[in-house]
Design a protein that fits this description.
The structure is a single chain. The mean pLDDT is 97. The protein has 131 residues and is of the alpha+beta class. The termini are far apart. The protein has helices at residues 20-23, 33-49, 118-126; strands spanning 7-13, 56-67, 76-86, 92-101, 104-117.
Length: 131
């Protein structure tokens, strides 16, 4: 049973490889929004995975976030995801996500993940390659 209120927090240090310039989402040497978004999704995925049976995983289906403050290279950033809801059929899980650096909040929003059977999902995906 997936427990509402479960949280997961991740951290990393911003490097040149994690900047807006490196992602192509901007030109400045600041923590890139695509990397903040990925960090938030990773926190949510990590949070949910502990509740799933072997062979099950999750994929992101919705991400609605704001990136509110810049973070320079060399500073630590943190992302947290909290489970806020589970659909009636148990297949969709909602999260509150947030990010901050050593000086304060830098982003926040919501995220939804779908629980999937990993092999079946990959087979469906790969069938797109068939003539």
């Amino acid at each position: 049973m997936i427990l509402i209120g479960t949280k997961c927090r991740l951290e990393q240090t911003v490097t040149e490889a994690l900047t807006a310039g490196a992602a192509g989402s901007g030109t400045l040497p600041v923590f890139g929004t695509p990397f903040m978004a990925a960090m938030m999704e990773n926190a949510a995925m990590t949070c949910l995975q502990s509740f799933l049976e072997e062979g099950r995983g999750s994929v992101g289906t919705r991400l609605d976030i704001s990136h509110d403050a810049p973070t320079p290279v060399g500073m630590k950033v943190f992302a947290e995801a909290e489970i806020t809801g589970v659909s009636e059929n148990g297949k969709m899980v909602d999260f509150q996500v947030s990010a901050w650096d050593e000086k304060g909040p830098i982003g926040k929003g919501t995220h939804t993940r779908a629980i999937i059977a990993s092999e079946k999902f990959l087979a469906k995906c790969n069938s797109k390659l068939d003539g």
